[in-house]
Request: fold
Amino acid sequence: MKLATKPNILILGAGYGGMVTATKITKELGHNQANITLVSKHDYHYQTTWLHEPAAGTMHHDRTRMQISDVVDINKVNFIQDEVVNIHREENKVSLKNTGEVEFDYLVTALGAVPETFGVGGVFEHSFNKWTVNGARQLKEHTEYMFAKYNNEPEPREEYLTFVVAGAGFTGMEFIGELSERMPKLCKEYDIPLNKVKMYVIEAAPTALPGFDPELVEYAMNLLENRGVEFKINTPISEVTADGVTLKDGEEIKSSTVIWATGVRGNPVIEKAGFENMRGRVKVEKDLRAPGHDNIFIIGDCSLMINEETERPYPPTAQIAMQQAETVAKNLHALIKGESLHEFKPDIKGTVASLGGKEAIGVVGNKKLFGTSANFMKKMIDNRYLWILGGTGLVLKKGKNPF
Amino acid sequence: MKLATKPNILILGAGYGGMVTATKITKELGHNQANITLVSKHDYHYQTTWLHEPAAGTMHHDRTRMQISDVVDINKVNFIQDEVVNIHREENKVSLKNTGEVEFDYLVTALGAVPETFGVGGVFEHSFNKWTVNGARQLKEHTEYMFAKYNNEPEPREEYLTFVVAGAGFTGMEFIGELSERMPKLCKEYDIPLNKVKMYVIEAAPTALPGFDPELVEYAMNLLENRGVEFKINTPISEVTADGVTLKDGEEIKSSTVIWATGVRGNPVIEKAGFENMRGRVKVEKDLRAPGHDNIFIIGDCSLMINEETERPYPPTAQIAMQQAETVAKNLHALIKGESLHEFKPDIKGTVASLGGKEAIGVVGNKKLFGTSANFMKKMIDNRYLWILGGTGLVLKKGKNPF
Reply:
């Protein structure tokens, strides 16, 4: 039988990288060319870059996820819902928590990221740091519970109404954008005067949104300050505690809701598997393979690539993960056919950060965008992703109306 | 000036008794006959008997309340938002928390009830026991937070999904009716299998809904059991702890959500003021005045009246509070005019308990009602109250559609 000789392609992770790989590879390869397996902890895929919205309660979490079986052709892809425990690089197999071992001929590692604490204590114990559907939902419910509790206390508990976002990067700014925009409605819902609420964004670096155009950063900060957000820039956090945060300068901010958004590192499985890495990210070859491995690709937040223009690593973004996935799909095909592999070249089309409501900032090409035009562009970017994954049908079902 | 000699009528509390007194008295008396003052902790009135719905999350809490100024004629009634600290019976004045002292010529005490613990420890520390808008909202948000947390824990925490209702009286049964009806939707919303949820109703007495027709009680229990509720009847609780409840028979049930619904006692101000009382309730005269006081009426949950047929006290219900209020309004008028006072005679029209969705049980006249017909009657009773308070307009604005 010819079937037995089909190579096994194993894709780990159903984030941006894994999902685009799975959908593209099924188009690249015919039924008889490979067995394709996709492993993910959940039976749904979620759009990590949208999660600040359900986390702040401005969008239902179901709008940020989709059943994997609704998007990936399950006639062509074997789906295993399980957690990856380890990658045995030299033995060409992977350990899963419940399923046991799965062998591969070709591996695509797209396991995403985990929060980076930068050595600050108490992050995992005392902060909201999971940018997942479950994590976003918990943060939203926790926030509402703090509001609901406030009026039942014999003495005012200001920490219930104090929100501390650690990190003024993309995630932190987009989250506080949503939360600050929702705040007047939240206060009304729970009979709480708006002026009782405090919102802080604390950033260790000398600027919010490092790397972004200063004019756009100023626009964003002014806008958020007008909604009641207080920025503490150039202010490292020394510890997260059960009571709030302690800053390096000694100040303590009492808060029942600390949101950790200082950045990410690659999935710990990378380190466990023994790949040479920097903060869980593997400096991949130009064809996206792990150094020394002809059959292992690493993409997305677990991969590291240097931008030759700036000599700094590309940030871990959905945009790059998706582009890498398209290259990996082609390279898997090339490997099977015995052809030469393609080099990956990122094509950064632009970056837009939403700020809640109809507000956003961004750069597309060389053009700076503010307010509604940036907001329009942001929604088009979000819709474009859905289109890549599932065509017009998925955009209509799950997309954002930019108008 | 004649104005200075107008008597001061002071109404304490804006529950069923206080609100009906205030609306009726403004119709009984002309502008020049009395100064009328209403004191309440909140600027809104809420329908206590509806609160199991927002507490379980099946109705928005705003539907169970109304601005006092929308219902009471504020041209005729002076409204003070404050908390009653004490009643100085012999000096004809009342102490308020922020306003200080307020004098009266006639007092209507309609301060409602607080939870009765029957000596069980830990109730106030570890259970949800406030049947108020704030308390209901907190219970709802807490429940949702437990569901949101569950999927974020490394190990299953069954106590998050275990709900213990202490007391199978009216409040407990109506609450579990709503919660059990909502449970499948809650589980879907938070990605939790329904079979992980446990719901208990624990009752010290030998039956659920003591005093209700046994056939109706059986109907209610069967219905709730089919929705997954487990009853423990004839089972006193010995303690509520941070971990759940301990029963008299030694069994411990781990639960993050204990709802206390074993009954009520009169407002503690009654005891503080030195009225002779039983569990905060004053055995009032037939004209609803406190014994020994010609100018103090006590109605609602702070009053005690013996049903001569059964030789037992009437239960503290909205129905009786409202009927008492109508009599008090007439008697205030009679006192001012120097006429003789009316005796109060309760007219129990029926009792209906809702059980969630379209389910209910009840007795109206001599007729037992089940299911949709009882549910219809329950909604008509709720609407009738709104009609008494604010006429057709209020029914249309806040009423329940029985169809």
In short: Chain B has three domains: 3-115+264-348, 123-260, 349-403. The interface with chain A takes residues 130, 134-135, 137-138, 140-142, 144-145, 147-149, 151-152, 190-191 of chain B (CB under 8 Å). The mean pLDDT of chain B is 95.
